[in-house]
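User: quick one - fold this with magnesium ion bound?
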Amino acid sequence: MRPGYTPNSNTTRVVILTADAEFDRSARAAFGASNAIELIMVSGRLAELGDTLEVAGAAVVVVDLDAGRPEEMAALARLTTRAGQWPPVVAVTQGFDENVARTLMQMRVADFLVKPIEPIDLVRACARIGKGSGSGKGAMDAQIHTFLPAVGGAGVTTLAVQTAMILLNSGGSRTKPSTCLVDLDFQHGAVADYLDLEPRLNLAEIEPQPDRFDRQLLEVMLSYHSSGLAVVAAPNRPAEMRSFDPDVVTRLLDLVSTNFQYVVFDMPRTWFSWTDSVLLGSNSLYIVSEATVPGLRHAKHLVAAIKERLADGPQPKVIVNRFQQRMFSSGLRRADVQKALGDAFASAIPNDYALVREAIDRGVPLDEVKSGNKITAELKKLVLESTAAKAREGKPASLTQKLKLATAR
Ligand SMILES: Nc1ncnc2c1ncn2[C@@H]1O[C@H](COP(=O)(O)OP(=O)(O)OP(=O)(O)O)[C@@H](O)[C@H]1O
Ligand SMILES: [Mg+2]
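Assistant: Sure. Structure tokens for the protein plus magnesium ion:
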């Protein structure tokens, strides 16, 4: 669901790396003339180019390698690890060898083909792999989770960081879904600080020419956490109160949602001209508040305002952070919170200042400080449930249909 976005292309990207002129020709013949396929041919050997091969946004990556050379197999292993669950990687080899086949399976390549390969077989293999991906536009249509504050300091950044970590680790033990955390609080953003990263987004450089902002430039402006989480964050400009051109921000949203499976937005308190687009494009919208009467009141107002303003958008839900169950004191109890918020209540996240503090000071996720902690557990329940529900919702046109177009010429 991304009605606020304007996808700049409606094609499916297939990336093919080969050093073999004959295979290059046959691949171009298979895909080249279709408008529905954006074919990116990379000329060269996997061992040399594999580590820098652009895979983000591709629906399928095909690599032609010399399986007899250990450095080529090692490069393939690095590539499949980097690609994670998406995009699928197809290996093309010179000849069939049982041991090689077994190794390729272990590396989790989606398929392998042995030369010589008929163009039609290449298209069929790619179509079969793309099938069921739910992705008619490459990896487009990320699942987007957006966090916005009801009051200052409620914990938006903390919960956005933890949610991104949960999504990143949701793919099982061997695969990590590509996940990007975007700090849209350009003035006071703290995401890079909380994760101890160098912020690399330079909006001022993009602003004069938003059209120049493409995948390559995005790659340059991403910071990577050691966990594999991609982060978009700009250096803070506390003294500079200005809004950026909405086109630049929408372009950024478009790029991240095209290139990642999961995207998490950390929103500022101020409502900018681009805020509506972000909210409309989100799958889940969480308003973060605290368990105080004014906090809940603000949250309720915000829920009502968003529902009125963006009637077609996702339903905003309230997370009450730093919640403390008080048996014998006068603080708000869970039942009070639930009553105050009604249907909009999503979750109460426990208060654990020492844990959160240590995670921030060390620049690591909460789970690394204390595995199985209650904050992560509560958030996991909420986020993974909503992710599963969204996954059950309809899937867009499949890659197979587009590849059929390619062969129907
Ligand atoms: N569940 C929690 N338990 C205890 N402390 C928490 C919890 N969540 C956040 N905090 C603490 O609350 C403070 C504010 O958190 P955070 O920076 O995430 O909030 P924010 O809403 O992003 O703030 P800002 O309005 O400044 O952007 C931090 O000191 C953080 O350590
Ligand atoms: Mg913040």
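One thing worth noting: Residues 133 and 398 are 7 Å apart (CA to CA).
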